[in-house]
DNA sequence: TTTCATTTGTCCGTATGTATT
DNA sequence: AAATACATACGGACAAATGAA
């Protein structure tokens, strides 16, 4: 049975390594969706690199590459030692 | 003896690994200077990664990172299989 | 103050794939 | 076919910032 609440739970990040879309781009796309859909609100933290590693099995550098895409797009910002957050402007 | 011509020869790239400026940023700064000073003219190739490796001892990924900075700034562009070149606009 | 865990930042080495010459 | 060069990805290492204990 599926409750309404469950509909708001984020789907786990999943990467298809055989896709012709690069892994870092797949990750960036999914994170972008989570921000633009409001699943991650303004100033709210994105999943940490460690967390994404556990969920996806991707290498840290690949994950940083994906996150960097969002930062370059102005959709996220990083605070060293704290985490990466969705941009306040939304 | 130093001829006038030598004054136009590019200084070798040099990275200080102990600087608090990241290596990739030092490289980006030096390459940017070479472009803005006209030492590397519009549509002229930047030094290849192999060449920069020999001169600096930096890892390929670090060099690409530095070059990527210039690409993001619109100061350079890459042609796959050819190399990286100074932007035509200058 | 010190210690510890968490998180991001930087860097290296290596491997494979793709595109151009 | 071979050489050159970038793109992507992995794995590992160490440093720095933060916050909590």
How is the secondary structure organized here?
Two copies of one chain form a homodimer.
Chain A: H1 23-36, H2 49-56, H3 60-72, E1 76-79, E2 83-86
Antiparallel strand pairs in A: 1-2
Helix pairs in contact in A: 1-3
Chain B binds a DNA duplex (21 and 21 nucleotides) through residues 17, 22-24, 48-50, 58-62, 64-65, 67, 78-84.
| Poorly predicted regions of chain A | 2-8
Oligomeric form: homodimer
Instruction: Tell me, rounded to a whole number, the average pLDDT of chain A.
Output: 86
Distance between the termini of chain A: 33 Å
- Give the overall shape of chain A: globular
Beta-sheet strand percentage of chain A?
5-15%
Rg result of chain A: 13 Å
Strand order of the largest sheet of chain A: 1-2
Number of strands of chain A: 2
């Amino acid at each position: 049975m599926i409750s309404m609440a469950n509909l708001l739970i984020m789907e786990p990040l999943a990467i298809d390594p055989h896709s012709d879309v690069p892994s870092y781009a797949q990750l960036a796309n999914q994170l972008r969706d989570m921000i633009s859909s409001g699943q991650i609100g303004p100033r709210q933290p994105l999943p940490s690199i460690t967390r994404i590693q556990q969920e996806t099995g991707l290498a840290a550098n690949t994950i940083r590459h994906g996150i960097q895409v969002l930062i370059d797009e102005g959709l996220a910002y990083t605070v060293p030692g704290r985490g990466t957050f969705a941009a306040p402007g939304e």
